[in-house]
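Side project, low priority. Logging it here so it doesn't get lost.
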Amino acid sequence: MKNKTLKIARILFAILLFIPILCYFIDFSGKFPEKLQTILHIQLIPAIISGMLLAVVIILAFTWLFGRIYCSALCPAGVLQDIFIRLSGKSKKKKKRGSKKSFFSFHKPANILRYGILLVTILIFLVGSNQLVTFLDPYSNFGRISANIFQPIVIGINNLLALILLKMDNYSLFYISIHNITLISIIAAFLILALFAVLSIFRGRLFCNTLCPVGGLLSLFSRYSLFRITFNQEKCNQCGLCERSCKSECINSKEHFVDTSRCVNCFNCIPSCTKGALTYQPSLFSSREKTATKTVEKKDIRDSKRSFIATGAGIIASIPLLQSCTGGKNKYNRQPNPIVPPGGISQEVFAEKCTACHLCVVKCPSKIIKPTGMEYGFDYFLKPHLSYEKLFCNYECTVCTDVCPNHALHPLSPDEKKTTQLGIVHFEEDLCVVKTEEKDCGACSEHCPTQAVKMVSYKGDLRIPHIEPDICVGCGGCEYICPVRPQRAIYVVANTEHKKVKKPEYEKVKDVEVTDFGF
């Protein structure tokens, strides 16, 4: 039992962090406390992008001291991979011998591929594009999986139960519509989920140790970690049980070697050893381990180079495929630029900081934040934008700015939100029902919170909208309510850079003193 203490502690710690993060993403009722979002700020990529240097330093320092505990317990994508490994049965001991396919085995590291991806990711990020980070960041990938797969499944279960209860005259649950995700975001989420599942089942933590830039960065510190798993060669009988239980495939039991750069400190190997030959303790960096980590056969180097070239070519080749999947711009889309959510400052700034974790998508009360396809270019692929097809942006709502862990959406107060212009209203008189059908409408004016849309005299008793762009905040209330289809007569065109407008001056209602009943 003593040998299992570290493993049990690691599992409990991972569960205590994973479940709140998962619940925070799939929560559609707003019942989970907003304070849970603070857990997301300890994710490495969001901490780097948002400028939380203290969190970054603490993560790197802990990695240097204790190894890659971050990958094993703090990263939700890493825990998700552990779940797949557990479900595959590879983490369990098999009674039958000779079934080598049921176990892991030592593989030499693909260092050229691992550090090549890390270097390219950093260089692309420094020149102003974080799209490779978006594709490879484990937290953002987990967020997209949760937002586009897990939450819709939970909502579907809720809707089924609501339908069953409704037939029993029970109204404790209500139907929830799903209109804030897109086909391309679902496809992207399923692809990364399938990648996690396949790699986890067959090669354990291969994604973390080869493709993940976070894993690559942390491996540079864990390579020299103070605490590490070491062999007691006198006790070891080279049975290979530790090697078979290692999900990182970094233990060479024959040579008594543990590659600390790839070890994620799952501690599965320690209880698997029947002789107690493995311990987790402070250890100096021995010359033997230096030799072992640097010894890579030429064949492995060539394989790593081929893998690196193939991966890069695959990413480049997938761009036209993604373009064809999204189908380009919509026939009736008048938006040359995406409407960036509040706090995004500008399209350029937002695109540089957002990694498309889709937390703002699932947390938006109006469900108007949707992932994009390729209609706004590759650099904006999967990133959120505002769509006013079903609802509009609440005049005082700042939820999206509050939850963004990357600070791609800067926090706004309700008063600041009221004066932030996301876009400018445009009106096409020739499409308006007042002109085409000579009918009264005025719905756009009634839904404008700033009086940027007013009704003025037109013909006889008819009144037609008149816009004042200078006080419009681009909330989309007018566009949402406009009855004209397929092209709406009034709509919002995005600002490439958010602007500030003055607060509207509302007419004061005069206080009338009533002395009698008035009739």
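Brief comment: The longest strand covers residues 490-500.
Revisit when time allows.
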